[in-house]
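Hi R.,

Quick one: here's the Enoyl-CoA hydratase sequence you asked about.
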Amino acid sequence: MHTYNQFTINRKTPAFWRITFHNPPINLLDPDTIFELLTLMDQIETDPDLKVVVFDSADPEYFIAHYDMARAGEKQPTPKEIEFPAWIDFVSRLYRTSVITIAEIRGRARGVGSEFVLACDMRFASKEKAIFGQPEVGIGVVPGGGANEALARLVGRARALEIVLNADDFDAETAERYGWINRAVPDAELNVFVENFARRISSFDKLALHDAKKLLNRTGVPEAEEILESRTVFITGAMSANTQKKVSTAFARGLGKPGDFELHLGQHVGNLE
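And here's the predicted structure, written out as tokens:
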């Protein structure tokens, strides 16, 4: 049995798990998170009874805030040897696992947090409390973990350009209208809605679920090579003097810490000069 520091697995039934992310103080995703996610994928892919996983957060303000920039550049450990960079390996497997994956989103899902939920099969969000954003361009880089590829497929080219180039926050109702998420659900109803939905799916035949997902994936899910191209451009941008200056300014103003800067990140990245 694996032990996790940042995730809690609640096996509601043999066929349905809830996996809750908790990395205080603001649920930043870091190299330890990615290591645990890869380990979780090993469990998800090999469990013979599992049909549905719901991912949620223990922090109502942050689903996944974004990547922990204070740990950028650290060597990424992995549980086993893999072909692609660790994050790309994880999201590629998430897209293609036979298990149905659902994100139940309260709070902020920005940057890699948005890219995480985009790689889930379905996304249901709190109408009042969920916020989405791809702030990367605001600090001089591009999304490098799947957003370019997934958003263009989900919301169309023009709206994907709006989301990525504007680098601002989007509320759940707008995200629903654009197709970024499946539904914006009143916060008081979200847990019950997702719980009932997941339990219903988990009562169905596993092979039928697998076959349906595999066939629907033909309409287009990102290939690892596509995301790798975005990652390469992201790394190049991150090394530029302009980006380094903006990141330093962001840290000085509160990046990665509880407070107004993180709560209203979309607003603040527009004023980093």
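Residues 7-205+218-271 form a domain with the 2-enoyl-CoA Hydratase; Chain A, domain 1 fold (CATH 3.90.226.10).

Cheers,
M.
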